[in-house]
Amino acid sequence: ENIIIRGKNILKNIDKQKVLKLKEEVAYQKGQVVSKTLAQNEALSELFSFDKGEEISSHKSGGDAFVTCLDGEGEITIDSVKYILHEGESIVMPAGLPHVVYGKE
Q1: Beta bridge partners of 33
Q2: Torsion sign over Cα 105, 57, 27, 4
Q3: Which residues have a Cβ under 8 Å from the Cβ of 21 and sit 6 or more positions away?
Q4: Could you give the dihedral angle defined by the CA atoms of residues 45, 48, 53 and 56, in that order, rounded to the nearest 10 degrees?
């Protein structure tokens, strides 16, 4: 079932009317980056899990990307500057700047 707002599907692949723990919504898989589409719109898209040592290589995005570390430790590189995120911490990766997301732990 999808949530529909103004005739558009906004959220999918998420149970409705249920308390969720996002870190339990996408499973870790050895040696992989796993994604789960949450929405298909300009404001929200996917939930990712990273096995230790896995990454999404350098790329640019047309919009700002808001990243929250739900578990473990992640390394985010934005325009060649490295940031370490711990559980519960967030960072915004500005549109147009190259960025890398790496599963440190």
Answers
A1: 50
A2: positive
A3: none
A4: -10
